[in-house]
Here is the input.
Amino acid sequence: VAGVTRDGSTKGDVKATSYDLATGERTSFTLAPEFQSDDHDAPAFLELPGGRILAGFMTHGGRATKADTRAMYWRVTRNPHDISEWGETQKADVGGDISYVNLFRLSAEGGRIYNFHRNGRGSAGERNPHFMVSDDNAVSFRYGGRLLYWPRPGAEDPKFTGIDGGRPYLKYAASGGDTIHFIASEDHPRAYDNSIWHGYFRQGKIYSSDGTLIAAVGDPTAAGDPAPRPTALTRVFAGTADGVAWPIDLHVDPQGNPYCLFSIQRD
Here is the structure.
């Protein structure tokens, strides 16, 4: 279980907690004391070969914190399936204010670990989904690329509310050891009349739901964008001014089919 505890100030401890369903025993470990008081900082977990656990966490951008807002932090348990002892905190600079850790390991890519996250790297004001990779089972991480690109909409776009804007929201789910599915909104629901879009990532390329190749990571799109926009994906739900969508969760069934949960803001 991941969490961030607060004490009523700007402090917040990043914690890992285990709960034994059979005995009710609870164990808690502080991964990063006084990191930042923000629920966006909750860690993501990934089981490594042999049963040790990787925990990755980041700040919520430039909000009050003593931590580096441009870095990914991570720790690995010293023993399999045991959160009572962890290795030292590791850190890798990514190049822009970042948040939201999503960890996956793809066996078809030699066990490469991906961390999909939001990153301010790139053009001014950008807050788009990017990814980091590790090819040594979390000994080190490096920047991997940009997944999608969504600029702040202009006043000419009828779906833009004029409030804030310029960042899609995503949920991810791995499948079959070679694929990472994702759903995305165009923007924050206060900024845009969002739809929900689906695509998947495989071997460095992005595909629509029916398997049509959209782009390879790192290739500019026909419009000159540095990555595809969410609107290049397969539309799952069409948003309107009276039905604004936001992604909540994404999973894959035993047959490898993705299914998603999303909310609708009415009126």
